[in-house]
Write a structure and sequence with these properties.
By secondary structure, this protein is mainly alpha-helical. It has two domains: about 40 residues, no CATH class; about 80 residues, no CATH class. The protein has four helices and no strands. It is flat and about 50 Å long.
Length: about 140
């Protein structure tokens, strides 16, 4: 059953941005709009990424799974670069989030929310594949 007074959810997920890269964590930067959002909402200040770059951490955010479960370890192939310089043999890397995974956007849609994704996706074969994550807009 849907509640009439559900909270709005604005989840800002920024790759390669440390908590001291905005004014809420630093006295060096001036980010008044982000600071206002942070003061009126919930801030998570201690977290760990599920991957060393954007694609695996996005896959984990969208599915709620650790990287080995969805198999996205890096952007593109893990076998890029000069193979003679590789110290380790890379694991098989999926470049597409399998459609069988249920995403947070799908769960929110099932709960009656309208969802949207703004920004890069990098979990599909085409740039337009993020559209599957937009509902009701």
């Amino acid at each position: 059953m849907l509640r009439k007074n559900r909270p709005n959810i604005l989840f800002i997920y920024m790759d390669d941005l440390g908590w001291t890269d905005v004014a809420a964590g630093s006295k060096y930067y001036e980010t008044p709009n982000i600071d206002k959002l942070a003061s009126e909402g919930i801030r998570f200040t201690q977290a760990y990424s599920c991957g060393p770059n954007c694609a695996p951490s996005r896959g984990s955010l969208m599915t709620g799974l650790y990287t080995p479960r969805h198999g996205i370890y890096t952007v593109g192939t893990a076998e890029r670069g000069d193979s003679s310089l590789r110290k380790l043999i890379p694991v098989k890397n999926n470049t597409v989030l399998a459609p069988s995974f249920v995403t947070i956007a799908e769960e929110l849609k099932n709960a009656g929310y309208s969802t949207g994704l703004i920004g890069k996706w990098q979990l599909g074969e085409k740039k337009s594949e993020y559209r599957s994550e937009i509902s009701g807009l």
